[in-house]
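re: ur question from yesterday

yeah so i grabbed the chain u mentioned. its 334 aa long if i counted rite. heres the sequnce exactly as i have it in my notes:
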Amino acid sequence: MAFIKINKQHFYHNLNQIALQTGSVDKIAIVLKDNAYGHGLKTIGKLASEFGVKHAVVRTTKEAREIASFFSTVLVLGDEIIQDEKLSFTINSIEAIDKAEVGARVELKVDTGMHRNGISIDELDDALKGIEQKELKLVGVMTHFRSADELSSELFWQQKRFASVCKKVKKAGFTEVRVHSHNSAAILRTKHFNEDLVRVGIGAYGYNELPSSFDTITLKPVMELWVKRVSTRLLQKGERIGYGGTFTASHAMEVSTYDLGYGDGWFRADTMQPFKTAEGLEILGRVSMDFISLESTKDEVCIVSNAQDAAKQLGTISYEVTTALNPHIQRDVV
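ran it thru and got these structure tokens back, copy pasting raw so excuse formatting
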């Protein structure tokens, strides 16, 4: 079966580079949502903990329960707000305050320009009053930048808005809250970091999504996707491969099937140019649910060693390439 190699040294290199940006590993909150961007929730959680990371961010309470033992704090981004001694939950709207369990630990998300989740700045006073009335424990204030990976001024006006929000929150008496707004792109372009945490997602996994014009650090891809050979056959010139016979052999060739398909989260997309693997082999014909065909007799072949390179061929982004990979694929730390 297809398998994924998780490079521990590359992961630790990335975390170390980010720690240098923040000033301390204690300020890193590793984002583990969606199976750690496809890298393996518990696998990456354990590695991050062993490196010294104390904080994590996940999407659901279920994810949080699986990795809670590795960290001092775990922030849940998008689930019902319940009372828990270790977990904190994101308030994404005024309505969420009303629905929250009394005594829950919460972090208030404020919409400073992304216009996706979070209360509006105009709702801040009402939100703080609601938190007090519901006897919730406000442990954090956060926002999310919409264009930190672009060469524009939008990051700066969002930062200015967020600074004003944090000042109001502390003036209202919530002086012990932790403050965090930076994602991977923001921290990679920041020279003087002065917040309590940075939420590091794609950067930890080895991808710098900033334009090349930025003078920034070098990261190393953590994941490699490998496949195993299932069968091999000799095709004659003119014979065709797979559903619809979309590939025709131009010469006699040895073709093998390998155990990867769209059922594993690989991409079926019909593009004008065939996908080339990390080893330069073209996927021949259409991707099936469980198989691809390559002109190779090797027992194992590396399909992806850099998700950014794969994404360019597939017309998408590195995030989608890694998160699409099915959790049933074995992940091995190397």
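noticed a couple things. The longest strand covers residues 223-235. also The two ends are 18 Å apart (CA to CA).
anyway ttyl
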